[in-house]
Amino acid sequence: MQYSRPELRKLIRQRRNELTSDIHYQASQDLIRRFAALPEMHTCQHIALYLSTDGELDTQPLIEWLWSQGKSVYLPVLHPFSAGNLLFLRYDTDTAMTFNKYGILEPKLNQPLVKPVRELDLICTPLVAFDSHGHRLGMGGGYYDRTLESWFKTGQGAMPIGLAHDCQHVEQLPTEAWDVPLPKILTPSRLWQWKA
């Protein structure tokens, strides 16, 4: 049975939200181990992440681990003047936070904390579902597709890595022309990798 994109979003979000707190905790610890094993970790300094919501793989332990490794972490902020686009702001324990229009916490806009996308080393992307070919299904706003467009066309700049629970994998997603496949996706149990 082939699901539509909205049907898949509903199905996988429900599947993700049914995970127990124990599974969420173990998944967040396994994510740190998978991340630490990435070859890119030796050279990456500026890493964009996101704060988890709606049953997503908990990124807070990973963020704290990255801080302990001396890495700089950045979070997405909805661009105030360019609709549908993201800015990335440095995130520390004392960063002032605010809720965006989707009810998601993000750093309060502060120009000196903005890091241009081209100066990031990795961009960790949220996703609702992913398939065996590296395609990701997001929430439908296209924010990350736009952010990653130049990387997708040229292979230059911050490399994207998707983060997901194992239960978010499906064999094949219905795709659109604007979808950006990812070169790597990390789940608690494995690294999925495709040629960029």
Structure, explained:
Helices cover 25% and strands 21% of the residues. The strands form three sheets. It has a seven-stranded mixed beta sheet. The chain has a single domain, classed as NagB/RpiA/CoA transferase-like (Rossmann fold, 3-Layer(aba) Sandwich). It contains five helices and eleven strands, in the order ααβαβββββββααβββ.
CATH architecture: 3-Layer(aba) Sandwich
Work out the count of structural domains: 1
From N to C, what is the helix and strand string? HHEHEEEEEEEHHEEE
CATH class, named Alpha Beta
Roughly how many Å apart are the termini? 29 Å
Instruction: Give the strand tally.
Output: 11
**Topology-level CATH name:** Rossmann fold
Percent in strands: 15-25%
Write down the overall mean pLDDT. Answer: 92
Q: Tell me about the biggest sheet? A: 7 strands, mixed
Strand order of the largest sheet: 3-2-1-6-9-10-11
Q: Indicate the overall shape.
A: globular
- Decide which structural class fits the backbone: alpha/beta
- What would you give as the CATH superfamily? NagB/RpiA/CoA transferase-like
Roughly how many Å is the radius of gyration? 16 Å
What oligomeric state do these chains adopt? Answer: single chain
Task: List the uncertain runs.
Answer: none
Helix share, percent: 25-40%
Instruction: Report the total helices.
Output: 5
